[in-house]
Amino acid sequence: MRRRPAEALLIDFDGVLRHFDASAYGDFEARHGVAPAKLLESGLEWHRQLPAVTGHWTRQQWLDEIAAHTGASAAALTEWDAYRGYVDETVLAFVREVRSSGRKVGLATNATDDLHDDLALFGLKDDFDAIVSSAELGVHKPSKEFFKAACLALETPADRCLFLDDTDRNIRGARVAGLSALRFTGPADLPYARAALGL
């Protein structure tokens, strides 16, 4: 039996809608003695990432922990954190296309407590019917609790939601929670997502 088109879209932020250009840091490493990639690597170590994305630490506390682990200066962390990346305009156009078709779209992301500041910076706050942040929920992807809350926020059953994310672990978690899910590798995946939504 052919599966019915999804009625709503849940989409990840970093790695799908927002990206970071390593070249934007210029001579950062030469000036600060540490590579931006090393700071990110430190921040993504699970015992530092988990409290940051579940609301137990503020973003500043997370940055302080990265500084303590790497020995980077406060100036280095401030400059590193000031670069907020860029929005993929093709993906944003897709989000707007989905909403204009009458389907709900929710942002579903593991994030620190400043997510809404970033959305305001990029002018994205009005592009979603719901914003589901792990820092606000206190639970993170790929837990069933996260996906249950995300579907409730869109007032759409899990089996009627399509989820886009760039991380395989999150895709598998979404499927276990009953959602349709597509691992996003780039704009070439959007035609499949459109078809899954019946567009």
TrEMBL record:
GO function terms (MF aspect): hydrolase activity
Keywords, ordered alphabetically: Hydrolase
Protein name: Hydrolase
One Pfam family recorded for the sequence: Hydrolase
NAD keyword on record: no
